[in-house]
Amino acid sequence: MFKNHPKGLLAASLSNMGERFGFYIMMAILTLFISAKFGLSEKPTGFIYSTFYASTYLLALVGGIIADRTKNYKGTIIAGLIVMAVGYLLIAIPTPTIVESITPYLTLFCIGLAVIAFGNGLFKGNLQALVGQLYDDPQYSKVRDAGFQIFYMFINVGGIFAPFVAVAIRNWWLKANGFAYNGDLPGLCHAYLQHGESMKPQALENLKELATRVPLDGQTFASTKDFVQSYLSVFSEGFHYAFAAAIVMIFVSLVIFFVNKSRFPNPGQKAVASTDGSKLSREEIKMSAQEVRQRVTALFAVFAVVIFFWMSFHQNGYSLSYFARDYVDLSTIRIDLGFTVIQGAEIFQAVNPIFVVLMTPVVMAIFGVLGRKGKEPSAPRKIAIGMGIAALAYVFLSFVSLDLPGKEALADMSEAAKEGMRLTPMVMIGLYFILTVAELFISPLGLSFVSKVSPPHMQGLMQGCWLAATAIGNFLLVIGGILYTSLPLWACWLFFVVACTISMFLMLAMLKWLERIAK
C-alpha cells in the first residue's frame, strides 16, 4: 500500500493515532458524560459540545499561523501533543458528582476542554501540512490523493479502539462497584435529584424498576435517593477514567514522532527537494499575486461548502448519540469480557473508523481503475458526490424514524414500551456506513485539494482555514440538538438532507472553475 509513496507517510499516520484516539473517545462519550455528570439536557450539552469541537478546529488556524511564522512545524506539533495530554489529565481527575452547585466543577471541565482544543490546534493542521509537503516532490505529486486517503485511513485505526476502550473502562468501574450498565438511568437519576418523589409518575416507576435490575451481587440500598447518588457517582467516575486512556495514546504518538522526526520535511523552509536531488529556491516557487488570490478564493469557496457536511457528519457525537441511546436496542450488543462488559450507545462511534479502514482500499481501487482509464473524477467533483451521499444517509434515517415517538413522548413511556419500539442496531451501522462513504469522498480528498492548491508559503495557514471551516460546521452542531428535542424525528433528519443537497449543487455549480484552478 505504501509502495510509490514517501517514506514519511507511515510515520506521520502513526503519529496522528494518539490524537485520533482522544478525538474518538470524546466523540463517543462527551455529550453522554456531560448529561450524566452534570445533569444537563440535550440543548445546553450541545452548546458545550459544539463550542468545544468548533474550538478544536478553529484553533488549528492559530496553530497554522504560529508554525508559518516560526517555520518550526515539528516543534509546534510536539508542543500540541504535550498540551493535549495536559488537557486530558485535567478532565480525567474525578470530581464530585452529587454537589450543591455544579458551576465550579463544570468550569474546571470546560477549562480542560479548552486546553485540549488548543493543543489540537497546534498539532492537527501542521501535521497535515507536513504530509502535504511530502507530495510536493514531482516524483510523488501524481499520488497525492491516494497518499491522503492512506493517511486518513491509518489515523482512524486509533478511532476503532477508542470507543470500546472508553466503554470498557466505564463499565469496568460500574461492575467493580456492584452495578450493571443502563443508559436510561443517569437521566432518571438527575430527574429524581431535582424533583424527588414528585417527578413524573411514569419516570419514577421506571427509575424504581431499573434500580432493582442494575445492582449486582445482591447489593441493596436503604432508599431510592441512596441508589441514585451511588449510581450517578460511580457512572460519572468511570467516565473520568476513560478520558485518562487518551493520555497513554498521546504519549505513544509523541514517541513515534520523535523517533521519526528526521523523516519529515519542514513546510516553509527555504528549499524543496526535486526528484533529481537539486533544490528549488524560494523565489522559484513564489507565485504572482493574482494567482495567489485565485487559489485562495477557490479554497474559500470549497471551505464554505464543506461547512454543511461537517455540521451533518459530526452529529454522530451529538444528536445521533442521543438517538442511539434513546431509540436503539442496546441489549443485543453486549460483549462480556469477564472483568467488564462492553455495552452502550458509545460503541457505535467505532463503526465509522472501522468503515474508514475497510472502505478506503476499496475506494482507492475504484479511483485507481478510473484513473488508468482517464476517467477519475477531480477532487472537487468527488467532494460534490460526497455531499450527495451524505444527503442519502439522512434520507435513510428519516425513513426509519417515521413511526418513532418524539423525544418528549419518551418520558411518559414505560420501560417495556420503550424496549418494544427500539430499533435494531443495524440501523446505526447502515447509517454510519453511508456517512463514511461520503466522508471518504470529502475529508481526505479535501485535505489533498488544499495541499495542492495552497500557495507554498501559506500551507499551514490554508490547512488551518480548512479546519476553521470544519469549526464553523461544528459550531452549528447545536442545531441538531434543538431539532432533535423540538421536531418529529423524521423532520429533524430532513433538515440535514436539505443542507447536504444544497451544498452538492453549489459544488457542482463551481466545478469547472475549481478544476481549472487545481490543474
Brief digest:
With 519 residues, the chain is mostly helical.
Q: How many extended strands?
A: 4
The N- and C-terminal alpha carbons lie at a distance of: 26 Å
| Main beta-sheet strand count, sense and barrel state | 2 strands, antiparallel
Number of helices in the DSSP assignment: 21
Estimated radius of gyration? 24 Å
Principal-axes geometry comes out as globular
Low-confidence stretches: 270-281
The SSE order reads HHHHHHHHHHEEHHHEEHHHHHHHH
The share of residues in helices is over 70%
What average pLDDT do the residues reach?
Answer: 87
β-strand amount: under 5%
Query: Widest sheet: strand order?
Result: 1-2
Structural class: mainly alpha
Protein described:
By secondary structure, the chain is mainly α. 72% of the residues lie in helices and 2% in strands. It is built from 21 helices and four strands. Helix 17 (426-453) packs antiparallel against helix 18 (459-475). The chain is globular, with a radius of gyration of 24 Å.
Question: Layout of helices and strands, plus pairs?
Answer:
Elements: H1 8-15, H2 17-38, H3 42-70, H4 73-92, H5 103-134, H6 144-155, H7 157-176, H8 185-195, H9 201-213, H10 224-259, E1 272-273, E2 279-280, H11 282-285, H12 289-313, H13 319-327, E3 335-336, E4 341-342, H14 351-372, H15 379-400, H16 415-421, H17 426-453, H18 459-475, H19 478-486, H20 489-509, H21 511-517
Antiparallel strand pairs: 1-2, 3-4
Helix pairs in contact: 1-6, 1-10, 2-3, 2-7, 2-10, 3-5, 3-18, 3-19, 4-5, 4-10, 5-17, 5-18, 6-14, 6-17, 7-10, 7-14, 8-9, 8-10, 12-15, 12-17, 12-18, 12-20, 14-17, 15-17, 15-20, 17-18, 19-20
